[in-house]
Amino acid sequence: MAIDHDMKESMLGALENVIDPELGIDIVNLGLVYEVDLTDEGLAIVTMTLTSMGCPLAPVIVDQVTTALSELPEVKEVKVDIVWQPAWSKDNMSRYAKMALGIR
Predict the structure, then answer these.
(1) Residue 55 within a domain
(2) Which residues pair with 45 in a beta bridge?
(3) pLDDT greater than 70 at residue 2
(4) Nearest to 27 by CA among 97, 77, 79
(5) CATH number for the domain that contains residue 60
(6) What are the residue boundaries of the MIP18 family-like domain, all occurrences included (predicted)?
(7) 53 within domain boundaries
């Protein structure tokens, strides 16, 4: 089942509280979150990537994603899928993130 637009916005809004420790910008504006979904049972599934494959902070970020989404009443459980395809690039970043990091 596809989640409705409002729920997706709520989930992305919660994920904007997860800040990439290296870059100091949230994972949504960095373009690291590829997909969010929520099953009827309340399982939130986040498909995301990281800025680098050997990111030592991956467990920290996954933990923060879980915490952020768990604050939504509809979410009972969180599953984070880290994917490397498509690879992340600076093109994924929002205009806000690029401006904050001085990238043109």
Answers:
(1) yes
(2) 37, 79
(3) no
(4) 97
(5) 3.30.300.130
(6) 10-80
(7) yes
Model pLDDT for residues 13-65, shown as the tens digit of each residue: 999 999 998 899 999 999 999 999 999 999 999 999 998 888 888 999 999 99
Task: Return the DSSP state at 34.
Answer: E
Distance CA(92)–CA(42), nearest Å, equals 28
Mean pLDDT, residues 73-82 taken together: 97
Q: How many domains does the chain have?
A: 1
Q: Following DSSP, what letter does each residue of 67-96 receive, concatenated?
A: HHHHTSTT-SEEEEEE--SSPP-GGGS-HH
For residue 103, the 8-state DSSP code is -
The answer to the question of residue 96 being in a domain is no
pLDDT band at 88 (very low <50, low <70, confident <90, very high): very high
C-alpha dihedral, 25 to 28 to 29 to 35, nearest 10°: 150
Residue 42 in 3-state DSSP?
Answer: coil
pTM here is: 0.92
State which amino acid sits at residue 56: P
